[in-house]
Structure formats: structure tokens, C-alpha cells
Design brief:
alpha+beta, 6-stranded antiparallel sheet, 5-stranded mixed sheet, 16% helix
């Protein structure tokens, strides 16, 4: 983590939710919270220990934040109280290796005001609708109580698995820990990656979960009481104020600046006259950002994976290649491609692409290689990128 080390220096840092080894190999001054792997904070008391650590004088000056879904858990469930404090007490600095570096604010705002919008009982399989609520930040509490037989089963063999199904953003089925969701889980904004976290800080709207329900198999119902108690709360004053300049500032710190043609083997076929075709490139790991001046552009290139340099941790995870345009704080997806990587040696050739981009203002095009959790995928690669200024429908 070269960029992080340059910015942080010897000041204290923690990594959320896990990946503590990165702090060690990057020679960072790691100051861990009491339960330093978030998936191990599996009770409200353990999660509260971590939250209190970030409230006191021992709180780290920086935090590297990402997301993971161990065992298919509901996103944002692990260390939920800590995540709420991170948004309140820290601000984004830069992105590296798919992780967002946060720095502690000099003046920390007051805790959010919680307003209960709904309390009701649900049957298992009954949806809790969230569409009627316009609040930008919602927390849901779910009380799933074991029956007498369920308590005995938990004591002898461990708890039975409970799942939540979501509709809308994050459409899917997720494992939950009843003790944790009883204290509440953030359901809006729906964030599953450090990129989502960054855009939340910038004040951008996220796709919303429309409804959710707790589901059990028929053979599991004997272990639980027949009803689920649910509540919906509005977190007033928790979200940061919108900041259109945040994304450009973070990208500027995240990438190395280079003039056209300076990046060997990464950008090819650049215009020979940078004065007439102004392009600024920034490179960091397996991502690339290119700043294009207003006009009509054709972007060509190839995307694929490095089959000869397969990294053990990324060997079989699906690879998502993404090209986004950032203008005025808004983002637009220009290209999304998915590679399913094989356990066997895979010799598929990179795929070619062409995108036409028309912007009335300066835009940043961000090329990234991500896994399904939104983290940097070490196998991704962009090749032979070319940028053509278009005039009168012809490449110049």
C-alpha cells in the first residue's frame, strides 16, 4: 500500500473489516480495535467494545475501510455500530487496492437522532416494505427469538441458520446472526463495496432495498417462535452533506500523475501532440483514471486477465471489468464486463471494446478491475487503451 504509507506515515491506522496483514506488510503503524477481525465481533457486546474504542482517545487517526461477506452474511451486519461511527467521525482521503482510506475529522458532529418509523410483527416469509419511506438513512431491527427447543438445540449443537431475503438493491439471500440484527443493521444506503462508501460520502444517491423478509425452511420452524418483531428507524443527521468536489480530490490523491506516453505498456497509441489533445493519466495498481477535456471521444482497448500471473487469492474469483465516467459528482457506467475464471489454466484472449463518450465538461474515466465484493482483483488488466478526439464524426 504505497500511497497509503506515503500519506499516513507513522500515524496510527486500523483496517476494517479485516485484512490486518496488510498493515504489517505495508509497514503501517497498526493500532487494532479490541476485536480486530469484524466477523469475530458476533455478539452485541463485542461489537460495542469496538465502537467504544473509536470514541475514545485510543481511536486511530486513519482507517482503511472495505467490505466482505463471510459465509454470505448480510452486508454491513458485522461491526455495524463501528461502521456508523466511521461515517460520523472520519472522511475519505484516497483509494488503494480497493480500500478507502479514511482520516479522523478534527471536529466530529453529534451522533444521529434515531426516530422510529414503524414497529410491527411479521410472519416468517412476510415482506417488510421500505418503499414508503423517503429517509436517506434507514436502520432495520429484527428480533428472531428461539423457541424452548431452539434454546436447547443451540446449547447442544449450535444455532440454526437464519436468512434474510432482500428485494431491489442487493436482491438476494443473506445469512444473519439474530443477536446482531436485533440491535439493528443499516439497510439504506445499501453499500457492498468501498466504492459505494466513497460515493455515499460524496452525497450520491444509492439504489434502495425495497423490501426484506426473514425466511426459514419448514424443518427449521420448530426451533423459533412463530413471529418476528421488526422496526424501522430513521437515522437523522447521520449522512454527510453532499460534496461534489470530493470524488475528484480523492482520485487526485489515489493515482500517480503522468503525461501522455509516460506509462510504459499501459497506455498505447496516445496522440503525438498533447497540446491539441489534452489527456492526463493516473495509474495505481490495476486501476487507471484518465481526465478528458470536453468534447466527443472514442475510447478503444482490450480487457482481460493475467492467466500467466495468477495470484492465489484471486485465482478463481469472478472478475468484473468496469469503466465509469465521473462528471460533476455524478457517475455513469460506460462498460461492464464479467469474466468467470476457471480452476484450469485459462488461455482466453483479451476482449476488445469501443466506447463513444460525449461530455460538455471535463470528465474522469475510471478503469477498474473488481471482484464481486467491490475489491481490487489482482488478475484484471487493461490493454492497448487509445483515446481519439472526434470532430465531424471522424477520429482525429
Amino acid at each position: 500500500l504505497r500511497k497509503v504509507k506515503q500519506y499516513v506515515g507513522d500515524r496510527t491506522i486500523d483496517i476494517v473489516p479485516e485484512l490486518a496483514a496488510l498493515a504489517i506488510v505495508s509497514d503501517l503503524n497498526w493500532k487494532p480495535r479490541p476485536i480486530f477481525q469484524s466477523y469475530s465481533a458476533y455478539t452485541p457486546k463485542l461489537a460495542e467494545l469496538n465502537r467504544r474504542h473509536f470514541l475514545g482517545e485510543d481511536a486511530p487517526q486513519f482507517v482503511l475501510a472495505g467490505y466482505s461477506y463471510l459465509d454470505g452474511r448480510l452486508p454491513q451486519m458485522d461491526d455495524q455500530p463501528l461502521h456508523l461511527e466511521l461515517v460520523r467521525a472520519y472522511q475519505p482521503v484516497l483509494v488503494e487496492a480497493g480500500l478507502l482510506l479514511l482520516e479522523r475529522k478534527p471536529d466530529i458532529p453529534a451522533p444521529p437522532r434515531r426516530k422510529v418509523l414503524l414497529e410491527k410483527e411479521l410472519a416468517f416469509g412476510e415482506f417488510l416494505s421500505l418503499e414508503e419511506y423517503d429517509a436517506p438513512a434507514l436502520m432495520v431491527r429484527l428480533s428472531v427469538q428461539p423457541s424452548l427447543l431452539g434454546r436447547l438445540r443451540t446449547f447442544l449443537f449450535g444455532a440454526s441458520t437464519v436468512r434474510v431475503e432482500t428485494k431491489g438493491a442487493g436482491d438476494g439471500s443473506w445469512r444473519i446472526i439474530p443477536d446482531l440484527v436485533r440491535d439493528g443493521v443499516l439497510i439504506r444506503p445499501w453499500m457492498v463495496s468501498s466504492a459505494d462508501l466513497l460515493h455515499m460520502f460524496a452525497g450520491q444517491e444509492h439504489p434502495r432495498v425495497q423490501a426484506l423478509r426473514v425466511v426459514l425452511r419448514d424443518d427449521q420452524r420448530i426451533w423459533f417462535q412463530s413471529k418476528v418483531t421488526a422496526s424501522v428507524e430513521n437515522l437523522e443527521g447521520w449522512l454527510p452533506a453532499p460534496d461534489d468536489g470530493l470524488l475528484p480530490r480523492v482520485l487526485e490523491r489515489s493515482f500517480d500523475r503522468a503525461e501522455p506516453g509516460d506509462i510504459d505498456g499501459t497506455i498505447e497509441g496516445m496522440m503525438s501532440d498533447p497540446e491539441s489533445v489534452p489527456v492526463e493519466a493516473f495509474e495505481s495498481g490495476h486501476s487507471l483514471a484518465v481526465t478528458l477535456k470536453p468534447g466527443r471521444w472514442i475510447i478503444r482497448g482490450k480487457h482481460g486477465f493475467q492467466s500467466k500471473l495468477r495470484h492465489p487469492s484471486d485465482a478463481y474469483r469472478p472478475l468484473n471489468m468496469r469503466l465509469e465516467a465521473l462528471t460533476g459528482g455524478e457517475r455513469e457506467a460506460l462498460l461492464e464486463a464479467r469474466w468467470e475464471l476457471s480452476r484450469r489454466f485459462d488461455s482466453r484472449e483479451p476482449e476488445s471494446f469501443q466506447v463513444l463518450w460525449n461530455s460538455k465538461e471535463t470528465a474522469q474515466l475510471v478503469f477498474s478491475a473488481l471482484d464481486d465484493a467491490g475489491q481490487t482483483h489482482l488478475e484484471g488488466r487493461w490493454e492497448e487503451l487509445r483515446f481519439f478526439r472526434v470532430e465531424d464524426e471522424q477520429p482525429q
